[in-house]
Structures are given as structure tokens and as C-alpha cells.
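Notes from the 1:1 (GR / supervisor)

We went over the backlog. Supervisor wanted to see one worked example end to end before approving the batch request, so GR pasted a single chain during the call. The sequence is below; no edits were made to it. Supervisor asked that the structure be written out right there so they could see what the output format looks like.
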Amino acid sequence: MSRSPSNAAPAAGLRFAVVGNPGNRRTTMFADAVRAAGHPAPRVLEWRDVLRGRYAFSPGELVRIDSPGENAEVDRLLRDTDDPTRVEGTALWHRRFTAAVREVTAAARAAGAVATADPEDVAVMFDKRRCHARLAAAGVPVPPALTGPVGGWSGPDGLREQLERARISRAFVKPAHGSSASGVVALTLAGPGRVKATTSVETTADGRLHNSLRVRHYTTEAEVAALVDALAPDGLHVERWLPKASQGGRAADLRVVVVAGRATHAVVRTSRHPMTNLHLGGARGDLDAVRAAIRAAGGRFTDVLDVAERAAACFPGTLCVGVDILPATGWHRFTVGEVNAFGDLLPRLTGLPGSGAEGLDTYAAQVAAAPAVLREAAPGSTPAAATSAPTAAQIAVRSPAAAAAPAPVRRARRKEHHHDPTA
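Structure output shown during the call:
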């Protein structure tokens, strides 16, 4: 457990309930953080029971909705497949999962409990098309993307033709409701009949798609067409493949965790492949080297954190999100690839200096924010605060020494809380 014993939570005895899968790393690490802060162990409401309507909340509980992943029975309930490696079925998964989140948050509210995630926020984050549109509408930098429906590979308005019309020769093709790089295809067009798709998807002889831990390449028009056509029924989000900065000869991006509106944790992810996910061979990079590279390019590391916080502000009803930041070649510009509702699984990572989460892992930082969440939901607060997690202006994750002092305005404290001594 990375939480420092000297950083005790400002209040004890809070009651938590977690909708999750028992034994899952996320649920276990959050429970560890709750106990380390001096609170009773959280009640765990199993997703398999929740999806069957067997759950209840108590007044005053703080309800964390955790990922339903890594459980075969839950996966079967959400998308009707007995094979967890299957890529297809994400549209059905999205409909059932978001319906369950709406029911859970409504039940919590009716019982006098407080959920830390807003159901509409979650629904948008798990639809890459809607998430991209929401970020773009708010002025958050995102890669250019195809708009409107995206169908199969060929035909009068197929993906190939749409890409050629938009003059996009390199693109990321993503299942609209996918996660963890499942089904993601890095696509390159190099003229008639010349195409290359890099993906972790394995296509079987009968045309079914399976997740694999090995990144592979498809280089014929027929192979790529079959792959895209199999992915298309669940919906696709297609965006321009922006050249990314590198570290040690490997492509690099960053995952920034934002808790209560403030960027608290950051990790560099590097890979020899276009996808930097750790389970596909990615590795953690050197954050100090990133700071130095950004400084050499004339920027500041706080520019990265600002972009992440602007993206998180598009989901004000959700306490914690993980923002994927894509640094351009040369480390001089930053765009947002995705915003993740369950982007806090970063074991052994403690908070950024000056973030208010020093010595805390991502789960302990959320536990530290819990008292303010409940205060904002108490009778007499605004209706918005009573039905969702507070915004950045409403709470701040602070160290115990600062807990008694009023929190300064977020923008005014930017230099103090994200001071980069190398900038």
C-alpha cells in the first residue's frame, strides 16, 4: 500500500459501498485505501447480483461504481458471450451497462446514499464518438475525426472512401464502446491496394474476432476489409493518427488521473507499437525525462495537466477520471485521446508533487476527497451537488495539514500545486 501513514484522512468512520467484482484488483486496492484511512471496510455489491437487481444502499453511504471487467459471468450477463476474449458485442454491453449504472445511481439517491459517478458522464465516456464530440465542443484539443456514421470497409460510402475523401492516410479505427485497446486498429493507407492494419485482434477462420496479447499486422485489402466489416456493426469511431512523441525510441503518451477536478497522478506509457497499453507490451516511461523534453521544447509540464483538467471538467458529475494525453512529436503540443471512467488502475503510483495527493495512490486520493463529497451532498446544498459528485470548484484533495484552511481558487493555485522545479 503506497499511502503514507502520516497522511491520515481528515475524518474517520465514513461508510463506503463498492459496486464491483470481489477479488478484482481495483476493488481490492480501493478497499485497502479505505481501511488505511481509518474507515470501515467497504461493502462490496457484486456486479453479478446488481445486474440481477439484488442490491440495496443505506443512507449516508458513499457509493463507488467500479469496473465490471475481468469477470466471465458478468461479461456474459452484459453481452451474451461465454468467451471473454471475443471482441464483438460491445454495443450490447454498452446498453446494458449504462442502464445498470442509471439504476444504481437512482437507487443510491433514493436511499440517501451518494454516488461518485454520474450515469450520463459514464455513458458518454464509454461512447468514443460522443466523448470526442463533447470534448471538441468544449474546446479541448482532440484529434480530427470522421463525423457521421462509419460503416464497413468498401462501398460507395465505406470507410476507405471516407478516409480518402477526408485526406486521412493514417487513422485509428476504434470500436465505439471498446476499452483497453480491444479491437483498436492502427490503419495506414498507401495507395490503391496498399494497406496495413496493426492491431491486437486475431481473426479466426470463421470470421470471429478475439483479443490477443500479441500485436499483429494485416497487409492485404481482403484481410483489412474482413476486420473492419466485423467491427462495424458495434459502431466505430475513426480519428486521424497523430504522430506521437517518443522516449527512448518508443512511442509515448501519458495517462493523467484527475480527482475532484485536479490532476493528481501521471504516468508515461511507452511502446514499440502504436498502442501503449501495458498489457500489449507497453512499459512505464520516465516522467522526469518528459518534463525535461517539454521544457526543452519551450513548454511546461503544467500544460499537460491543464489539458487533462479541461477534459475532466467535461464530466463534472464524476469524481475521478483517467485522461489519455497524446503528445505531438517534439513535445510541444498535447491532445486528448480518451477520457476513461475507470482509468485509475495505476498500482504503486503516488501523487504528483504539489497536487495535494503526495504519498497517496489513486484510490487513497479518492478516499481523501470523500468527506467533501458527502458535505456537498448534505441537505441544504445545491440540487446538482446532491445528485452527483462535486465539480473542481466544489472540492479539492488536500493534505491533512491544509484540511482546516479554505481551498484557494483552482486557477489561482496552478503554480503552487503543480510547480515543476525543472520548468
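Supervisor's comment: Residues 1-11, 382-423 have pLDDT under 50 and may be disordered.
Batch request approved.
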